[in-house]
User: Fold these one by one.
Assistant:
Number 1:
Amino acid sequence: MVLKLHGARMSTCTRTVAVVARELNVPYEFVDVDFAKAEHKSPAFTAVQPFGQVPYIDEDGFKLFESRAISRYLAKKYAGQGTKLIPTDPKDEAVFEQGVSIESSNFYPHAFGFAFEKVFKARRGLTTDEARAEEHLKTLAAKLDAYDVILGKQKYIGGNELTLADLFHLAYTQFLITLGQGDLFESRPNVARWWKEISNRPSWLAVKDGA
Amino acid sequence: MVLKVYGNPASPCTRTVTMVCKELNLPYEVVVIDFTKGEHKLPEYIKKQPFGQIPYIDDDGFVLYESRAIARYLASKYANADTAILYPSDFQGRALVEQAASIEAFNFYPSVYGAVSERIFKPAFRGQPTDETRLQEHLSALNPKLDAYDKILDTQKYLTGDNFTLADLFHIAYSALLEQAGLGSLFESRPNVARWWKDIAARESWLAVKDAA
């Protein structure tokens, strides 16, 4: 049975799983979750994903949610095909884990925080707090200075090979760029080099406008 | 060479790492970084941890930071037959740990950190008053998340099933701070969360580090 990806086409986290599946040459069937009808908050949905969030996968009855957990599962299970996305050498794997954690602790909160103020709040009928949006940008800028140092010493955020840690940055970086914040990345030479490379991978080009 | 943990006894992320060491019966030495004096922002420190955050480890010359990455590395390297259950290697078992660890990082930690920051870190370390509006926002975000936790823990003992894993462990240090911040009722009011918290907070490995890493 082909892997089923339950999500929303433009959802950042759904596109993250889609790009990973494509890197691994894992075919999937996209199953749309109807946000307009609040399907993600329905009892049938929350029975699988108690937080009412997308995406989740269903692989022959094995259901899993949290895009980064799904990505890790696919990368380990399908390690023999497509791009190697998690190193096997223990020290390389540790540096990969460090990269994944850098994304979740240092990048995501501020990328998400900015997007929340500028876009998500409006969708919920709330007003943007411009001061908070600025705060997130300021913090993100300082974090990206550290990224520029790291990427001056190693090719990718998880070491010298491309890993999931890099792919986890794709959706929100693209979001920030569409919100006019591309300069955060362009103005830092190593970050710019890294971004140009990962954002031009065919797997991302195939899903960036819809999983 | 004994594992060196560069951190601070008062730091929750340092305690996460040392608790993992205790779970694995792995000897370690804490090298104290005095964050109140800004030691974590000095050039010497930044060379090892470019974000100026604690902790980092030095395992015989191998330097690693980010407490959740360190935990996974130590569990993978130093687990034996008894402790391998903390971070299983079969595909589905591992996936369930990563699912619960991701829940912690994205559904639990941001709001808990925010609330603890308002109630404890700001007044104690940054000379700033609690912003009650922001505190309420964090609590409003956290409450429905903890309802989901209560639902998950209604049918299983731990976050992934029958066994205590790194995913449960990642919640402990900040949950203790939530209690310290006078917000323990968030857990107490939810029977399954309360049961789970009481169990994991009683682990010997936590008791050994909770007050001093």
Number 2:
Amino acid sequence: MLKWRKNTLKFGIFLLISSCVLESSNSLVEGLESTRAYDYTKYHPMDEIYKWMEDVEQGNPELVSSAVYGHTYEGRKITLLKFGLKNPEGREKKVIWMDCGIHAREWIAPAFCQWFVKEIVNSYKTNTKLEQMLQNLDVYVTPVINVDGYNYTWVNSSTRLWRKSRSDPPPNSTCYGVDLNRNFNANWGTVGVSFDSCSNTYCGNSAGSEPEARAVMDIVGKMHEQILCFLTIHSAGQLILLPYGHPEISAPNYDELVAVGKAAAAEMKKVHGMDYTVGTSPQILYANSGSSRDWARLIGIPFSYTFELRDKGEFSHLLPEEQIQPACEEAFAGALSIITYVHDKAFNSGTLPNAAGVAITIWSTIIAVSLSTGVLV
Amino acid sequence: MATGELNPNHYPARRAAQVVQHYLNTRYGSPYRLFHVERVYSGNAEDVGDSGRKYQLEISVQETASNATEKCSADIFFPRGEQHSPEVQASCVELLKNDTKVQEEALYQQYKMNQTLLTAHHLPDSHGNMEPDMKPFWHLGIVASSFVMLGESTENTLYNMAQVANVTQLPTENDQLKFDYHILLHDMVSQEIIHWKLLFTWSPAEGVHMLKMDQLPHCHDCDKPPNTN
């Protein structure tokens, strides 16, 4: 009788364990399938993006983890996905930071962050260079920083072109929101801003007054010594902006920033022939202060860029869905170019590049990968 | 302000070039023909005494439908003082390469004869999409908007039409199609969205004639959030 009970118990435990394994592998498969089923060529509302982040994490636990690192004004989670593989030598990992959607109406930016994630997930097992980089780097991706603003642009057609956060109006005003990309603690409130809360470049009532900006400054600030590169994604204009937004302040590594930016623009042009202009904001766009890009450079992150994606004014922020794929493909080439450069500089023998040198390095990497994987380039 | 030879990639030349784009669209634009600046090759800016500033540019413009590219030399004068509309003179190699007469005539006849007057809104929609039939009216909105954008441009603006919020066709008058448009302009420099109401006529023979252009006030009450939780 006792033996029978023991065996039943053993069998019961066996069944329990098996069903657990089956369930988790089912959800793994489900996770993978749902990320494969996710349409990266359509714009997605915030609830779908949250769900997608869960699926990506569940579907790729060896590569992906997530973190909530702040809350928006209206209490929504600001979430990132962290991509990385174990370093075989146990070396300290460096970090790449990418964020999208500081400005609510720039829908192609969150679309690009999602596309970027898809590319990493789908190719890291077969792309040796990418695998190597993920062993040395942790890539932090925030698909939407300004969740409240992005959410608001989905309410109806009249809210679609909202830019700022959704903070309450200050006293004596009826106007909502702060331009989060003028709120960072980088020469805050000096140039290219408005102190009128009704303005689309309202910088807030003090540097870092906004929870969304503060969340980024807190998490990036804590790990800034490990961060090789800070990429913040916007639209539109087809520009690659380097620090600083103030016309009289130059980054100490200005020449290198330009060279790496121009190499990225060259890679982007190869994809679909689109031109991306490289320069500081006061040169090619307008002077501004309080941007996340400037703040990142100021605290010592050596490479910091704002990407302004498609287009150049035909549709501006209302970029048609049929352009999501080509816009993301070229943006990916540009981002990867910069990430590869900063990785190789940190982990191989880094030499000061000219644009051609960087392009040759990247091209030979692609050839090497294609030869080793037998894929025709 | 930048004076002397201009860097063609920098914003002063780019903003002045955009004014040329607006000018060309007011003169030559149609539901089937639109121009946009493709490239700035070179530029020069100088003060003209106290009266304003003059830019000279070498640019190329591209016609949107045909992708044909034309080179243009343009002078843009930004006056100082009360009269703030810039003055443009442009000579382009060959602007009217593609023949749009047939399409324009077909559109004109279709909507002249239509029993029901056209109404449409949100061109493009939030996802950047629009019905193919509506594209000519989106283009027409850009042409009409160009009159506003030309008039409002300064060295500190960079305008594009962001969206046609609403188009209402009115009864045909003197053989001209007549339209009431509510359009949204985007100024890249201030990042503001500015609403305008435009009343104008169009026909293939006469082109666009503006009857009324009214800026609508920034709607602060529109910012009251519906329940988004």
